[in-house]
Specification:
Keywords: Heme, Iron, Metal-binding, Oxidoreductase, Peroxidase, Signal
Number of helices: 13
CATH superfamily of the largest domain: Cytochrome c-like domain
Shape: globular
Distance between the termini: 31 Å
GO molecular function: cytochrome-c peroxidase activity; electron transfer activity; heme binding; metal ion binding
Subcellular location: Cell envelope
InterPro entries: Cyt_c-like_dom_sf, Cytochrome_c_Peroxidase/MauG, Di-haem_cyt_c_peroxidsae, MauG/Cytc_peroxidase
Radius of gyration: 22 Å
Pfam family, one: CCP_MauG
Strand content: under 5%
Strand order of the largest sheet: 1-2
Number of strands: 2
Low-confidence stretches: 1-24
CATH architecture of the largest domain: Orthogonal Bundle
Order of helices and strands: HHHHHHHHEHHEHHH
Helix content: 25-40%
């Protein structure tokens, strides 16, 4: 944790003078009374449970959106949350292991897409954070990501009068790092994707073609054990056979859920991602090793590695390890996965940068 010194304070003062000459992002004024809101689950989705310590409000969501796109959250004022979570890619980043962080070094894990987080029961690939509020501090303070000192973050935000007002309107204690996390969580909870071609089919508004219907049926037969329900994820952790050796290097980051639980049965288990918008979120897996969906399907068909913790659900072919998928079935599955793309989600201006 960096600490302030006389030299540091002078540096902040000089930085403020220099920054005052630059064109800063405009933070729109908000003077309305706090308007609390309730998220409504789309038809067929499970009920939503919101953290009672962080009630949603229109103002809180909007503040979170502004912060999500603000580079002040990083130590070098060059990296925002959106640097690794682009709306046009369903809030993923399109690279295997990003080096967009402050250090410029490649991360050890792939940036996950941010989709339907209101239903998640754990965050990061290993579930190391239980809620969105605590999750936010990971990337903000990580030396290879945003590398921001929380005291400095508060200091910088307090130099922006409209931020001071917005925080004070929503939170009794104003500009605090904890409230930054709360606002970010409120915004991210609204990132709900439920208007794909498949959803319109479920509502009886349109039809799926024959190939898409075959793909939907194949997903139910071969994939629903993990990619279940309208969320197309069980939000659980599975060893899906991509490795059979689990290194303890980099603080055990490649050991999956075991890193959190220390339960030997969790070795190599990672969180099940949703299939919604999956055709936008390549590359795939916790380390982005598979470049496209064809590589993913072939992995399940013939590339699974056996270990003592590989998920029993993957023994499908007469109790042999693997999920048999023919070339024709791959085409059908891909056709259906395309029907899970939600174009409204990736163009919704409520999720976009306000500046």
């Amino acid at each position: 944790m960096r600490r302030f010194s006389a030299h540091r304070i002078v540096s902040f003062f000089l930085a403020g003078v220099i920054m005052s000459c630059k064109k800063e992002p405009v933070i729109p004024v908000s003077s309305e009374a706090v308007q609390y809101i309730t998220l409504t689950a789309p038809e067929g989705f499970p009920a939503i449970k919101i953290n009672s310590d962080n009630p949603l409000s229109n103002q809180g969501v909007e503040l979170g959106r502004l912060l999500f796109y603000d580079v002040r959250l990083s130590g070098n004022n060059k990296v925002s949350c959106a640097s690794c979570h682009s709306q046009r890619l369903a809030f993923s980043d399109g690279v295997a292991l990003t080096n967009a962080g402050v250090s410029g070094q490649n991360l050890e894990r792939h940036s996950p897409a941010l989709i339907n987080l209101a239903w998640a029961n754990g965050f990061f690939w290993d579930g190391g954070s239980k809620n969105l509020e605590s999750q936010a501090f990971g990337p903000i303070t990580n030396m290879h990501e945003m590398q921001q000192d929380l005291n400095e973050l508060e200091f910088e935000l307090k130099q922006v009068p409209e931020y001071v007002k917005r925080f004070s309107d929503i939170f009794k204690d104003g500009v605090k790092a904890t409230n930054v996390a709360k606002a970010l969580a409120q915004f991210q909870l609204t990132l709900i994707s439920s208007n794909s071609k498949y959803d319109k089919f479920k509502l009886g508004e349109i039809s799926l073609n024959a190939q898409e219907l075959r793909g939907l049926n194949l997903i139910h037969i071969k994939c629903k054990s993990c990619h279940s329900g309208e969320l197309f994820t069980d939000n659980a952790y599975h060893n899906n056979g991509i490795d059979d050796v689990y290194s303890d290097e980099h603080e055990g980051i490649h050991q999956g859920r075991y890193r959190i639980t220390h339960d030997p049965s969790d070795l190599g288990s990672f969180k099940t991602p949703t299939l919604r918008n999956v055709m936008l979120t390549a590359p795939y897996m916790h380390d982005g090793r598979f470049k496209n969906i064809d590589e993913v399907l072939e992995h399940y068909n013939s590339g699974l590695k056996k270990s003592s913790t590989v998920d029993p659900l993957l023994f499908q072919n007469n109790k042999q390890l693997g999920v048999p998928i023919s070339p024709k079935e791959k085409l059908d599955i891909k056709a259906f996965l395309m029907a899970l793309t939600d174009n409204d989600f990736i163009t919704n201006k409520k999720f976009s940068n306000a500046n």
